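Sequence in, structure out.
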Amino acid sequence: MSGLYGLTRPLLFALDAEKAHGATIQLLKAARYWPAGSDDPRLAVDAFGLHFANPLGMGAGFDKHAEIPDSLLRIGFGFTEIGTVTPLPQSGNPQPRLFRLTQDMGVINRFGFNSEGHRAVYKRLAARIGKKGIVGVNIGTNKDAADRGDDYVAGISTFADCASYFTINVSSPNTPGLRDLQQAQVLDDLLARVLEARDIAAGRAGRKPVLLKIAPDLTLADLDDVVRVSRQRQIDGMIVANTTVTRPAYLRSPERAQSGGLSGKPLFELSTTMLAETFKRVENQFPLIGAGGIHDAQSTIDKIEAGASLLQLYSAIVFEGPALIGKIKKGLLDHMQSNTISSISAMTGVRAHEWPRKRI
């Protein structure tokens, strides 16, 4: 697959970014038939009651409609997360809405939760019930929902028997008002309803972990509230962080002026600082998934040492291709060997207090 990506990359980059993404999905469908590889046991992570063969996951937004979860697992990810999925189909924002910042190894998107809806996505995931591999479901709300809490509850109920875990997405910047759900009182009510739905569904489908995905643009006071509510409600974990609406001054790509959420390498400093601040506040009550700006082995190590038990990639795969997965794993193992580290958990959070409070 790495060789194939090398051959097709010039063609993909000649296409509009969203069309190239669709073509990549089609190419990756072939990988579902490949033999599964194995990972060094030192890369294994136990979190949320699940066993991950390695800590690298594909972040939500890549496989929005659950078309290729098994292909992503076959090419080396330890888990994958599909979605965001909304109850009813919706087209999202007008195109163009996806932009490569090639000079900066970044991406800006303003998709707006384009989704085929619960019914179509459930049909695909139900077909793989009983298969190995951790596949999370990222759930969201329709843009015109009368009660957004109802949409999240519907997502829990619909996918309870085929999701390895759930992610509650209240942090996309591309659905008007969505980030308001991170406000303490609103978030408390939402998590109460979601967790009640999870517990009801557990009777027929088993208890599934529920994670909360937060924005990197929260103030530290806002973060205090989010972590306090999350701890009180005893969620299973958090993903830190989604895309940012800020724009670093050093961006060079012409597309930097586009509106939407920025991801990729330019997000690394902000998201990792937010990760470290979250780790300090959580006090080991639940694990964190670090997302935002991972682009090589060193940035992966930095995320883990800032507080991540697991990690999610997306934008870097656009620029580097699937070969990046193996490079990161090798870099992690080399680091562990050189420093006599026996497990990922032994690295988690060891440098969280060294991260400065920049740009928050």
